[in-house]
Amino acid sequence: MGQQQFKPFIELFKRTAEALDARGEPVELDTPLALLSRLMSDVEGYLSETEMLVLAEIGGYIYREGKRSKTLQRD
To answer: Which domain of life is it from (predicted)?
Structure first.
């Protein structure tokens, strides 16, 4: 897969992040985890196991970063 095919999605993520900042949304990783969990619950049974595992991996990255951030805030 070429990087070029992902560019529209990366741009969408960037615009969405900018909109979140403009609205003053806090940087809180519990929110995207909850959104992802809800999405996974809604699509369970419609997506393949492989697709669900990809979503779970994304959740793992978010969870790990949230845990790391909370640890750093305590130090």
So the answer is: Bacteria
